[in-house]
Amino acid sequence: QHRSLLSALYAGCAELGEQPSMAAAAARLQAIGAFTVPQSATALAALREGRPSEAEGLLKQVLDEAATALPAWELRMASAARARALEELMSWGNLQSALHDCAGSPVGAGTASGGAGARVLRAALGQAVTSPGAPPPAVLEEVQRPDSARSAVLLAAHAVVRERLDDARRLVLEGYDAFASAWRRVPLLATRAQHELLSALPLLRTIEVFLERPGGVPAVKPLSARNDMFPAWIDSALSKIAIARVCRDRQAEATAYAEIGRRCREAGNLQTAAEMMKACLKSRVQQDHQFYDDVFELKLRQRENSCAKLCQVVALEASKNKEPQDAFRYRLILAKVARTGWERSELDHGPAWDALKTARGLAEDCGAVERSLAYARLAEFADAVLRRAEQAGAKVPTGQEELVASLVTSVLQVLQIGDSTLTAQSDAFRQAHERLPRVFELLSTFPSTSPQFVEHAASTPVWPFLRWLPQALVHLPRVPVLLGPLLELARQFPQALVWPLQLSSHPDVVGDRAHVFKPLWAELERCQAPVQLALTFTKALDCLTHPDTRLSGELRLFRDALLRDDRAAAKQKWRGLWQKVAAPDASVAGALHTEFGLRVQAALRDVALKHGLAVASGELADGDLSSHKREAWQKTFAALDQLIRLGTRHGPGRKAPLQAFSPFLSRFDARGGAAAGQLEIPGQYRGLERPEPRGHARVLRFAPELLVMASKQRPKRLTVLGSDEREHWFLVKGGEDVRLDERVEQLFGAVNGLLAADGVVGLRVRTYAVIPLLPDLGILEWVRDTKPLKAVVLESAKAKDLTELDGHKQRIEWARRFGQPVTTRYANIFGVSRADVVVAFRRCAGALPASATLRAFLWRVALGPEALWHLRQRFAASLAAVSAASYILGIGDRHLDNYLLCLRSAEVVPIDFGYSFGIGALLPVPELVPFRLTGFLLSALQPLAGPQAHGAFRDGLTTTLARCRERRDFLLDACALFIREPLLDWTAESRRRGVKDIEFLPRRRLHLVSERLGGRHPASLLMEELADTPCPWVRELSRGPVLEGIVAGLEDEDGERRRLYQRGTALSSAEQADCLIRQATDPNVLGRAWEGWAPEI
């Protein structure tokens, strides 16, 4: 039964081009040992991976040698797969023979039905077009009426080939009728089937236009390599060739061959691509740069000639073209060939650099698209050469300053030319926009290039700097030339600058460099931006933090300064503690803070009387900070800690009056003021397109109640009533450095930009706005229509807490058998054998009720089968992107409360990134999984996914890793902010370790990010991270083979993880994805995870 269902599902997905599900079905068939002949699985994999020639050879061997031994379902799969392989190879004669062997006749009894019927017609048309001397097939006589629009296109093209134009007109009309009939039967959400139907309409219209005016070849709507299946490309090319033959337009025929050849090359089918380019060469009557570009791209892929030899051929052809447009294009081809030679170490960088400089000069006589493209290519290559030199620890042999200057000016030139709807120009602009952080770094390293930056920055639009505003402000003290663009930003978008500038100017962030920001504050004042209102607003938002939480944070900072014997810092921190907690500003702080402040003052007066410390005011004397007063300070800390433990009212999970926290916010009303003096609602400047501040929503009032959240710092949900007549919800977090969240979200946005070109539905990380206001205060956009995964579990299980679930209860009981202190307990658990851990873990996981799975939840919320399919695919793609991005950034602590599930789209929204950049491996119970992929999440992907998450999740994970690895330099440039402006926690950690260089820890953690992007084995990286652990039992365990065996899966039965781990070389993206999935789902790893993480769910 499984074999029949899976093979049928594979066939249906193959007709619709649903590659992830095809892969999953084939993997499941292989996993249950269904294939009679091992070559069947190998051939199917080769076909999916773009190797049709290899697949066809294997399948022919299977069908020739083992056809009689194959069961019917496997015979059907092999026959259909071989037909697809022959179709991709465009081997029409062999395809006709294969279809004849399957069906007994080429077409059947008078009708062309389904995908197989279209394939028969396509084979006949391909044979007729590519073999003009052969007798025309009799399909027009055999097929009375097409049953689909696709069949009508192919039959009409047959009629055109035979110059039976009346039959062609009739078939076009019948094709429209067939489309209308089929469209009514397609379910509303069956988007793949809808696209397949719609893709036939442009071809029908093309033939119709030709029949109306038979003199020329009409233009055809271009196809998409991303969305259109390969048969659609073949049909388009064959129809164009048929029309061109009738019109005797050899150039149009050559163009059609070139288009299909280009598509074959992009799919990796180099054999067919070469044959199509040969056909193009025979048909074309005039040469152009596009043909040469296609030919040399193919030759570079084939690697049959050296790049030096290819450069000579291109250079000779380029010398024949004198028109600027043509000469420019040929120089770009030459540069591409020379750069490939440089990348393969066949040539140095000189030939490519010279070709690009020549192309840049030629582009000045061309249009905006050519100029934008020339500068973009120049910047890209200059960056590549510089990075190779940096990685090798050497200087560029010649012209390093020239490379840096060219990169800086080229990026600014592209930004000057601007974006447009033209793809080439848009891509160049996007790449230049992404390269701005690299420009900042180079300006810091090579200050001699600053004059070139100043010269071109004056005429460059400043809005692209908005996306990288934190990076620009961090570099400003070292790169003074950035002040010009930042001043212009202050003039054009003042409220975009206020919050980042306030944060960067804070003493804990900028230190003694605050003077560099004074011109920006002055410019904001001159532009009459509501600066004072924004600063007061920040103070009021700070008052939404519970006073005991504020006291805890301020006391920790003071204690650290006191222990370092930094008296100046200690005085400053004590002054801040007094102003924020003991004597808060009554104009912005509510009764909750003033009452707590009086209690703090009373406690400090009591300390002053008992221990002789002058702590009853905001100023401390040097004598009070001397070392012989340490015992008195310990008693002071104990008294204040007692106040913190007593806390304040308004606990988590309750609504609280805004008035009690901040009367300023509760009384705030801007409905009568001018728009220019109103605060814009934060989070409206994303930096991805030019903003229009006049259309931004502004803060009018605040809802009278707050919702106090249940997490440690008790953040509050604040409702802002905007000028757009909408409620805007924000989470106000005090006592935490949300700069980490902001930077992680910025990196997630960068990953989304890399994935946008793939166009896979749902393959993105759902992001939200994070606005840091102070080092310990920020606001986060509230993500609506979502629910934490923990709430989904509890709702599905009809429970109030996880401890009510049998599986979780059993897990806790099992873990606590090994000791009460956590470190002792898990030191013992890591000593348990693999077999015992796996049995115990599977018993706990199996106790979870079937109704409490994510699969069951999605079944309940879906409107029907098609809706469920879409929710599952969207969930799988979203989870894949989140998992890949989280692994690259080392984000840990992925418990059930740190994932939100969108109730509309089933997308996953990751939140709370406090344990990022590998911190999870340093916990008292180290996290050994790269991301969360437990049974609860896997249930939504079943039954196709199997234990290794095949299908949409694995494909999405592989794609995301591949795109990030292709643009690793861009991501590392964005991460450089952590080195230039380390987080307060990272700085404190460096001090605890006794490391004087505060950049050491950020560089160490970003090195691990670079290693992940380089394809290093995940287990090898984790072992390196575990070596830094402060936990003695983990350090001791990591010295022996036990921990390595657990992490690397050295005891696994299939041995694949062991083989890849011991190979010691970089993994491909697919291998990396497989290793991550195996590590994340390994019961031997999950069974040793901290029980509070709930690995069994």
From TrEMBL:
Q: Which residues form the PI3K/PI4K catalytic domain?
A: 702-1031
One function term, GO molecular function aspect = protein serine/threonine kinase activity
Q: Which SMART domains match?
A: FATC (SM01343), PI3Kc (SM00146)
InterPro entries xref list:
DDR_Repair_Kinase, FATC_dom, Kinase-like_dom_sf, PI3/4_kinase_cat_dom, PI3/4_kinase_cat_sf
The UniProt record lists the FATC domain at 1065-1097
- GO BP terms in the entry: double-strand break repair; telomere maintenance
Recorded GO CC terms: nucleus
What the entry lists under PANTHER family is as follows: ATAXIA TELANGIECTASIA MUTATED ATM -RELATED (PTHR11139), DNA-DEPENDENT PROTEIN KINASE CATALYTIC SUBUNIT (PTHR11139:SF68)
Q: What is this protein called?
A: Non-specific serine/threonine protein kinase
Q: Which organism is it from?
A: Alexandrium monilatum
